[in-house]
Design a protein that fits this description.
Blueprint (H helix, E strand, L loop, with lengths): L13 H5 L3 E2 L10 E5 L5 H10 L3 E5 L3 H9 L6 H13 L2 E4 L10 E4 L14 H12 L6 E4 L7 H12 L9 E4 L18 E5 L2 H11 L6 E4 L2 H31 L4 H8 L23 H11 L5 H27 L8 E5 L15 H10 L3 E5 L5 E3 L5 E3 L10 E4 L17 E3 L11 E2 L1
Parallel strand pairs: 2-3, 2-5, 3-4, 5-6, 6-7, 8-9, 10-11, 10-14, 14-15, 15-16
Antiparallel strand pairs: 1-9, 7-8, 12-13
Helix pairs in contact: 2-4, 5-6, 8-10, 8-11, 11-12
Length: about 450
């Protein structure tokens, strides 16, 4: 019996449920088909590159002239092999860059890959997505396929694409085709390539789904169809909500392990030997990035509008939000225990990006940790060659120190980037390890 690719804790019945998936079998691939990718950020750029590398004629559209300049110069957060490949498709013309939305009319397929953040009140910010969809609708032509990939609340595809297209007199499923296919890009992780990561496609009609899957199938070996854009939208939210709840639990188990003088990483790995019913995560200083701290709030906001409560998800997101405060308290406790007055103490943060190996500060726990320590009177500096400068919420600018470990009372291991030497941290008298995996310092304490 062939192993099922489903990651489900259903006690060995995965192979039976796998039969319920609807795989898309791509036929008659057309080399050179014109595709436009709207938004060239952490999702759009790898998508555009991947399509260009496999033979499509791709136009990457972005409203930021600075971003287009960075891409042309190769100053992008991609693995080295992809940066070289990006230079090649740009030089060959397989990938063109533009800031003029008029190029959308030239494409047979338009893929929308713009950010969907939340504001300071954790309310969905659809400004970029709304503007992108308005532009796509304004430049649409008969025969196009439009694919939305940006994570958002259930019903967005119909609200921002289907209904405006119908108001223009276009029949969705006949004149134009619309689908939602959530992105599944894992920045900085070479183990999860686009080619090996399955994708989900939900079309307004079956024809919409198949046309979208034909294009998405150029970037991955596996595409599965679901019955509607709404099913695909909720699939993406469920994925990230599961991760959020799992991470909140991992941090809570880490607190339990500290009270019991146990290693949470050892315990998690041991639990992971069970071949069913368990999918563990490792604890850390908090949860950052573009997905987990933001995406669940799209569903929470939508459910609040309908008067629906989901206490487990709500509590998990509160736990995630408050995790940096817990790290701050631990640092202050260690300083006091070592007879170092927090006010005026020198604390160095090792790594501030939200994830190892990426140049990305979005929602990084390091920022509220730094701010919280500064409010307690601590003198905070940081070391992160990938992030040369940070701007705090109050406007304070900090630069990465060139020589870490000098004149430091305590170092907080926040993000350990591969390929960097952190031997200096072992010489610091106090080490708080928020990664739970910095074993080089025998005297380290964990959060």
């Amino acid at each position: 019996m062939t192993a099922s690719p489903l990651a489900l804790a259903v006690n060995g019945r995965e192979h039976q449920l796998f039969e319920r998936l609807v795989p898309f079998i791509r036929r008659n691939a057309h080399v050179g088909e014109p595709v436009a990718v709207v938004g060239l950020g952490y999702v759009g750029l790898p998508t555009a590159y991947s399509l260009a590398a496999c033979g499509a004629r791709v136009t990457g559209l972005d409203t930021s002239a600075r971003r287009l300049t960075e891409i042309r110069a190769g100053e992008v957060d991609l693995p080295e092999a992809q940066r070289r490949g990006l230079a090649e498709v740009l030089e060959s013309g397989a990938l063109r860059l533009s800031d003029n939305a008029a190029v959308l009319t030239e494409a047979d397929t338009v893929i929308v890959c713009v950010p969907t953040p939340v504001d300071e009140d954790r309310t969905p910010d659809l400004s970029a997505l709304r503007a992108a969809c308005e532009s796509v609708v304004a430049h649409v032509r008969n025969g196009q396929t439009i694919i939305l990939t940006s994570t958002t609340f259930v019903g967005t595809t119909r609200m921002l694409l289907v209904e405006p297209l119908r108001r223009r007199g276009l029949r969705v499923g006949t004149d134009v085709h619309v689908a939602f296919s959530p992105e599944r890009i894992d920045p900085g992780n070479l183990d999860h390539t686009q080619r090996e990561t399955p994708r989900i496609v939900g079309g307004v009609t079956r024809s919409c789904a198949e046309r979208a899957a034909h294009v998405i199938g150029r970037t991955t070996d596996s595409v599965y169809l679901v019955g509607s854009p709404e099913a695909a939208e909720l699939t993406k939210l469920y994925e990230n909500i599961f991760r959020a709840v799992n991470l909140a639990l991992a941090n809570e188990i880490a607190d339990v392990c500290r009270d019991l003088d146990l290693d949470p990483v050892e315990v998690t790995i041991a639990a992971g030997t069970k071949p069913y019913g368990f999918l563990g995560s490792f604890p850390g200083p908090g949860v950052g990035g573009h997905c987990i701290p933001c995406d669940p709030h799209y569903l929470l906001w939508q459910l609040r509008e309908h008067g629906v409560r989901v206490p487990l998800i709500e509590q998990a997101m509160r736990s995630i939000e408050h995790r940096p405060d817990q790290v701050v308290r631990r640092v202050l406790e260690e300083l006091v225990d070592a007879a170092v007055p927090p006010r005026g103490a020198r604390v160095l943060i090792a790594g501030v990006s939200y994830k190892a190996g990426v140049r990305d500060l979005r929602e990084s726990p390091a920022l509220p940790i730094i701010s919280g320590l500064r409010r307690a009177g601590v003198h905070v500096s940081y070391y992160d060659p990938l992030i040369p400068e940070v701007v705090l919420e109050d406007g304070t600018e900090l630069q990465s120190v060139p020589d870490p470990g000098q004149d430091c009372d305590l170092v907080l291991m926040h993000t350990v980037h591969p390929g960097l030497d952190y031997g200096w941290a072992t010489r610091c008298p106090l080490v708080i390890d928020a990664t739970y995996q910095f074993d080089a310092a025998a005297h380290r304490r964990v959060v």
